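Hey, I'm writing a tutorial for new members on how sequence and structure tokens pair up, and I'd like a real worked example in the thread rather than a made-up one. If someone can provide the structure for the chain below, I'll link this post from the tutorial.
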Amino acid sequence: MAHLNRTTTTKKLNETSSIGETDTLKKQIEEERRAYVNVAKIRRVVKAKIDNSKLAFSFLRYFCFLCIYCAAILLQREPQNTIGMTAALTNYFLAYSYRDPNSFDLKSFTDIQTTKDFWNWLEIYFVDTIYKDSYYNGDLMNPLDRNTLLQYMKQTGGFRVLQRRALPNSCEVLEKYSLFLSDCYAQLQFDGLVGAIDKSPFVGSASGTVYNYTAPSVWLDPGYVFQFAADRATALQQIRSLKSDRWISKATQYVRLDFAVYNGNVGQFARVAFQLLISPTGKILPTLKISCRRYSFYQTTTDFVRLALELLVVAGWLCYVYAFFRDVLLLRRQAGSQILAPFFFDTWNAVDIVHLLCLAMVIATWIFIVLDPTMNNLAISEEAVRMPDGGVVDFSTTALAVDFYFAVNGLNMLVSILRVLKFLRMNAFMGQLTDAFQLMLPSVTQFVVLLFIFLLLFTAIGTVLFGADLVDFCSTLDSIDLVMGFGVGWADPFQLFEADPNAAIFFYYPFTFLNGCFILPLTVAIIMEAYGYIKEAYDKAKSGDLADVISLPFYAQLYRGLVRNVGGLCGLGAERREIPNKFDVGRIFSDYAGRDLVPTSEVQRHFEQDEETPWELAESIIEKYGAFQADPALQTLLDRQDHAQQRGVGPVAARVQSFMEDVGGMSLRVEQLLVDQEVMHRKMDLLTAVFQPALMTD
């Protein structure tokens, strides 16, 4: 039977020569290519476009929210004023030196090594620096300008010192050495707030004054506090009295001198704190910390602009919280409570949860800062600004809240970057980055564990080898920081060789080898493996039904979105706006839900009877989506013919003859075609017409 068909077909190829008949049959070929409408492809393309559109609009909303949020945070921070006051005060107190009365060396606060150095600095240098009663030309200052530093920063009224002590005999010592020692003291932690703290009163050795430990509340600094007067002469007398009383003793492990200044030009207070961390080993570490605080957050025009931005941030956060819980309840209603655990542990949902929680902490902390009574209840007079109890202006509690507030904001902005990464899926090309990140996340998690073990082991090795020679290897956190510095290159390895050359060889070279040959290459391998897999899937998808969506550049996608949404306002893309959008296309073909391949004749009859959508419009949509398709049984034959024409190979007649021989060897599918005589004859006649001109030329 197959041989008879091949003979008949060859004969027809030789007999057909009319150009008119060829054109007619070419038209029949084109009709065969449009015999069916691939409705399933239209649905897939429409769904992909709708999903991308939803992500794009979500990204646009989130981007606007993120811009408002960042603007509000920057206005709250006011870095220019804060860094300006901080730099000015730091230079003022640390850039100048005093001459030590014993060694005649020039020293500053950072050169303090003994308790005696501290008293000399306080008496000789600090008092003259903080108390000002004359202008630079020698004229006496008027009362309102008195004690003004750097022309603009007025001292709020005196300063104070605070110390914290360890309990006597709180350390463990062999009994036989107790005869040799008067007392021993354990190490206190966290600025003397944790450990064996001495809270009992002590008596000054010269004046007999009793100094008491004060702890007004959990939020205020506990310790032994002494308040100095607001005039220079009295303050000097008080300093000498404390010095003669040996107010700082060998039990003291933390000393802080602090005061506040006010700058009316920028409406900010600055709290200046000189700290001494005194170790039981005898080492003294002097540090200076300056923190700034607005006296009122809502007073100027800029403040009220910021208030509007803050309210928008709160409103946006409430909307996102509402949308999140709405999705959770809808998911529970549709799939049950057992689906909630995978939902919450999904990568992007977890990012959203962390983001919303960070925003909640940010909003709550800011409300606490704004409502802080420290600034609202100050006692203000011509001479000084003081706390309600008469003490020095102290906003250390809210300073901690401010530090926490901006730290959480920094974390929140990092999470925001991950959320932006999620929205990159709105474009297939950029979405490769998102998919690669999600694919490599399990490997990255395991790699982080390996990296932590690697750092921990070399931290332990460094502490063992250099703990007695390098300060950075004396604490765990500093050691980890230094080891990471060796890994990324900012730490100087020569300090290891200067401390112990032999130990440095056994530490630095193995660390560099493992880090350069294993850790870093493993990082690159994880990234490249994930990206390579996603890139392969992306290239493969470009030849499928979604090729037009996947190959669409981002700028073209952005332009089409603008044309669809705002083009009418500015007259852009009038022709494109006349074409039904993706939502209209989905509605137009909704009658064929559940069907993948529909005969074109049926679709045409349907739209010829449709009053809203004419067949010409439906036909243009099908053309746009590339959804016309030949009979599946004939599709392979037509594809071969197209392939031969595109490549320009020949002779075509020989390929037809080879193809006809292959037909005789076809299995079940060809036999089924042969059974249907009517269909088979029509298709063979069509093939004869297609390949006849090539046979005639051969």
